[in-house]
Write a structure and sequence with these properties.
About 30% of the residues lie in helices and about 25% in strands. It is α/β, with parallel strands linked by helices. The radius of gyration is 24 Å and the shape is globular. The structure holds flavin-adenine dinucleotide.
Length: about 450
């Protein structure tokens, strides 16, 4: 009877575990609540109409089809019995299955955290999943459409105000893209509004955007964002969010209300519920974000048959980045294979840091590799190379290269299909009730801003 290895999560860590297991005789099952392996670092480009969903999301079973001993299941792992060595997996739409394992690899990533204010999520979507990116795309492009038909200048300005919470790589990338979208891509498309009037406000409690890149690159990023027209609000903590905007407490302790039609949350992460389920079942320790503390070989204390890897593990302050997840996955695959073959394994996991990169706008990115710090066009070229190298599958690499060529040279964003659902919460453009909202009658007046009011060059 072959050994049963179950991998929870088909992200970077899960996928690289399977790659590290190449040549193993074990029966491997990858369980993920999503169908696709997602290249999260480029989610913001799906959200802003540059790339299509298919360019960053590939079916997990397609990626693993050459691994004859690997099967894929779509389901949400909601329970673990470490004594019986079984998992409880919820099927989409109801029902569940029990899945036995001899070796368990938990690579379930992290989720957006609202720092105890989950109620913000309704009005300020985060960006972790494909659904999040598509929702943000709807909100961004929908906001310009709503501004175009708004008679009230206050309402118009509200729709043209975009607030982002969190000035890490994702917040910075989104902020830069929204300004580029407004000032380049949409520039010639609207007749009653000037998309270039769009305000992009970036809030963060820290001193500088992209603080993880160190003060020098962070300073360059701040200058590049300001040149783009992004309004930086550092030392600012968001204390409330609603449908029409947000309340912010600044460094002096004063609170200010900002009216914004779109609020996006990119501020924090926490481990998913399965981390707590596992920690409680095994008596393991979790860090403040709920990540599980692991041994040097990435197994759980007292449970050599369970590894926790990638974003969900807590080990020596390693960051939650794709490179850590990939290396941890590959290491674990090789370790499990060695154990299976009866070989001794005493090598601890060692992370080799290949650096990090963040995109700001066309021709501007920051890259940090050891002592080498790159910014501006050189940083941007390095960013391009890194992302092409790591995109999953040749087809996606080629597709992304062609799409970037078009976007960067001709301002074209080809992936702008969206429905009006969730621009106004829970409603779709084809929904007849959308046009029959309570109080809508008094709004049926002629547009007072003629099409000719704005130049279109
Ligand atoms: C917007 C964004 C931008 C980023 N940019 C960068 C970047 O520029 N550079 C960089 O290095 N890193 C970046 N990262 C971080 C990087 O994407 C993560 O570090 C990496 O994806 C972690 O891999 P993982 O396998 O641990 O988790 P994930 O890739 O998140 O995969 C976890 C998988 O587990 C599944 N799952 C979760 N819970 C369950 C459950 N209960 N049952 C079944 N399946 C479950 C999920 O569906 C998911 O497929 C970014 C992340 C985001 C969100």
């Amino acid at each position: 009877m072959p050994r049963r290895i179950v991998v929870i999560g088909g992200g970077f860590a899960g996928l690289f575990t399977v790659r590290g297991l190449r040549g193993s005789d074990a029966q491997v099952t990858v369980v993920d609540r999503a169908v696709h392996h997602l290249f999260q670092p480029l989610l913001y480009q799906v959200a802003t109409g540059v790339l299509s969903e298919g360019q960053i999301a590939v079916p997990i079973r397609d990626l693993l089809k050459k691994h004859a001993n690997v099967d894929c299941l779509v389901g949400n792992v909601s329970g673990v019995d470490p004594v019986a060595r079984t998992l409880h997996v919820d099927r989409p739409g109801g029902g569940s299955i029990e899945l036995g394992y001899d070796e368990l690899v938990v690579a379930a990533g992290v989720q957006q955290s609202y720092f105890g204010h989950d109620e913000f999520a309704e009005h300020a979507p985060g960006m972790k999943t494909l659904a999040d990116a598509l929702q943000i795309r709807r909100r961004l492009f929908g906001a310009f459409e709503m501004a175009q038909t708004a008679n009230d200048p206050i309402e118009r300005q509200r729709w043209l105000t975009f607030a982002l919470v969190g000035a890490g790589p994702t917040g910075v990338e989104l902020a830069g893209q929204i300004r580029e979208l407004a000032t380049h891509t949409l520039k010639r498309e609207f007749r009653r509004i000037d998309p270039g009037e769009a305000r992009v406000l970036l809030f963060d409690g820290g001193d500088q955007p992209l603080a993880v890149f160190g003060p020098k690159l962070a300073g360059k990023a701040a200058a590049a964002l300001t040149t783009l027209g992004v309004e930086l609000h550092m030392h600012s903590v968001v204390t409330a969010v609603d449908e029409d905007g947000l309340l912010v407490r600044d460094g002096t302790g004063a609170s200010t209300r900002y009216e914004a039609g779109t609020v996006l949350w990119t501020a924090g992460v926490s481990a998913p519920p399965v981390a707590t389920v596992l920690a409680q079942a095994c008596g393991a320790e979790q860090d403040r974000a709920g990540r599980i503390k692991v041994n040097d070989d990435l197994t759980m204390p007292g449970h050599p048959e369970i590894s926790v890897i990638g974003d969900m593990m807590s080990l020596k302050g390693l960051p939650g980045v794709a490179e850590v997840a990939m290396q941890a996955g590959f290491y674990t695959g090789r370790r499990v294979r060695a154990v299976e073959a009866g070989r001794a394994w005493d090598k601890p996991f060692r992370y080799r840091d290949f650096g990090s990169a963040a995109y700001i706008s066309r021709g501007r990115a920051v890259v940090s590799v050891g002592k080498v710090h790159l910014a501006g066009p050189v940083g941007w070229a390095a960013w391009l190379g890194i992302h092409l190298m790591f995109l999953t599958s040749f087809r996606n690499r080629f597709g992304a290269l062609v799409t970037w060529g078009l976007t960067f040279s001709r301002e074209k964003r080809r992936e702008r299909a969206f429905s009006m659902q969730a621009v106004l919460p829970g409603r779709d453009i084809y929904d007849k009730d959308l046009y029959d909202l309570p109080g809508a009658a008094q709004e049926r007046v002629a547009l007072d801003r003629p099409a000719a009011a704005l130049p279109n060059d």
